[in-house]
Design brief:
Layout: H1 3-45, H2 53-101, H3 115-143
Helix pairs in contact: 1-2, 2-3
Length: about 140
């Protein structure tokens, strides 16, 4: 494989990576919107009648899971939104390096996801699942009270 073919493959890979990041950003933005709406609805529609302590604790636990899931999703959305700036900075540094070294071409910059982003992606989805399970338990406990 010659150098031009390698550069062409890198450009294709960069485009695919950019599309992947944009779709993940859109996915987590929608999850954030839905989770925030559910959080607001749960807080505003929660009955103020006196319930058993364990039922109130299950509700509190589900709210905490949902809140932590929302906060971790905010971190993921921020990291995906910031990728374009990181790409711009890396490209600028590579152009300066190419000028300094006297090279004719600059390879397209590639940036991988941060470890923090990958961790919070998984963490937020796990928290949303736990929140859903605890809300189902809460609903079951209320119906059998």
């Amino acid at each position: 494989m010659d150098k031009q073919e390698l550069n062409r493959q890198k450009v294709i890979q960069s485009d695919l990576l950019e599309k992947s990041h944009k779709s993940k950003l859109s996915f987590f933005r929608h999850i954030l919107l839905v989770a925030s709406s559910i959080f607001g609805i749960l807080i505003s529609l929660h009955a103020s009648k006196s319930e058993c302590l364990h039922i109130r604790l299950v509700f509190l636990l589900s709210i905490l899971f949902l809140l932590c899931g929302i906060l971790s999703t905010v971190i993921v959305v921020f990291d995906y939104s910031y990728i374009a700036e990181r790409l711009r900075r890396k490209h600028y540094d590579e152009v300066e390096k190419a000028i300094h070294d006297g090279e004719d071409t600059v390879p397209p910059p590639q940036i991988s996801e941060k470890k923090r982003t990958v961790f919070y992606e998984k963490y937020s989805l796990i928290l949303f699942i736990l929140s859903l399970i605890s809300l189902l338990i809460y609903t079951t406990l209320i119906s059998f009270e």
